[in-house]
Amino acid sequence: MITQDKINWKQLGTGRISPPGSIPDKRLSERIVAYKNQVAGRYRSVAPQDIIKTMAPGEYIVSPKIDGETWFLLAENGGVWLISPSGKIITDVPVTDEAAKILKKRHLFLAGELYANGQPSRPRVHDLHAALGGVAKAQIKRLHFAAFDLLGDEYKPSPFSERARQLIELLANGKLCHSIPFEKISDTQGILEAYQRLVTNQGHEGIVVRSTDRQILKIKPEVTIDAVVVGMTCRTNGGVAELLLALQRPDGIFQLLGRVNTGFSEAERFELARRLQPLAVQSSYLAAARSGALFQFLRPEVVIEVKCNRAVAQSTCDGVMRI
Fold this sequence. Notes:
By secondary structure, this protein is an alpha+beta fold. It has helices at 26-38, 51-54, 94-103, 125-132, 160-170, 188-201, 266-276, and strands at residues 10-12, 15-17, 44-46, 60-65, 69-76, 79-83, 89-91, 108-116, 143-153, 177-179, 183-185, 206-211, 216-219, 223-234, 240-248, 254-260, 296-297, 303-308. The strands form 3 sheets. An 8-stranded mixed β-sheet has the order 1-2-7-6-5-8-9-10.
């Protein structure tokens, strides 16, 4: 239950938002953490070209992947609140007002994607961040909630196909608060066709595929980049732990690209350490790995190929590094 007088509300347009850690109900907080760990944390990424060889024959439920953030919607006693996994709460904005009218006095708990309509393209997560900024000038009319799972309390646990049907019925009249569109697919060829239609033709971020054995797969386009290795950290038991990558600009300056610590075999980690250690140099620039350890900078001589689902712009101190 949301006890509103115990929350430190701040203005969000004409609505309200609370800081992280504001969930007053311990049981509700535990349910959100459990869902993130047990369901959302099990999503497995699959490249489009690997669909047929990765997935077994069977029936699937496919939906478009909307580019926003996972939030939860709680409806009880005629009120509606949007709750983030970090414990932020949003209410009294157009999307929660619409949900309150649709759901009336039902007691429901939904998982979904909070997003802001794109301007002019499809929604992207930075659209959401922009819409939530500005305090009194926050663009709250842009906020949407697309529900992708029904967690209770009014409905008993059921197969996902049944929960998807119920979501579509519950939110049929919603525009700001609506269900993710679901469709049943009978084979892997149908998944390929859905990917082509939803991602390639309609421009969605990707698709989410749920199987009858409770697997949840994310299928998104891959981006391949050739990048130079400019830093590394090593594990205590030997071998590379993490690499720092950069791209060289036409003026010779190296632009930091990002870090990578997955996708290596054990043999590759030791071989990379052997190859890279002789390239160590001193640098006045400091950068930390995910573990908190500082990168050892390297002469930019080794180029590797990396794959990702998307590139996101992020500013650093001056955006460049000099070695």
